[in-house]
Amino acid sequence: MSEMTSIKIATGVKDRLNHLKIHPRETYSDLISRLASQVQTELSPWQIPLIHVRINGVIRELKHPIEISVEMDEGEYILYNHEYRLLVVAPDLSEGLKDIIDEFEENWNDFVLQDESALLGGARDLRRKLIALVPGET
Description:
This protein is α+β, with helices and mostly antiparallel strands. The protein is 42% helix and 27% strand. Helix 3 packs across helix 4. The radius of gyration is 23 Å and the shape is elongated.
């Protein structure tokens, strides 16, 4: 059995919690845990601006930040930006941001450092977007 603590709850709040129970015998601990899990998984994504990236091992500042969306799913962070084809899943936010920077560098290598004539339409568009983000690369 996990450790327990006692907490004080106003009578009105306790009455409201009683109406949220799935079963009359559901404990308050189980109820609060269930509600917290629902809230955590129903949070809308939030944004983190990506200001610096790594290109060929060198940290570069972008002309304008890329908005990275962050969501939580079953205890993991999902970070993404569809426009720049960035997507990672990580156990914590710090690792996720490191992985996003790695993903950006991989995209740079795959789209910018390649011969443009070998790229198809969507890949060419991404190449142009990536180049436009980095000062001195136009």
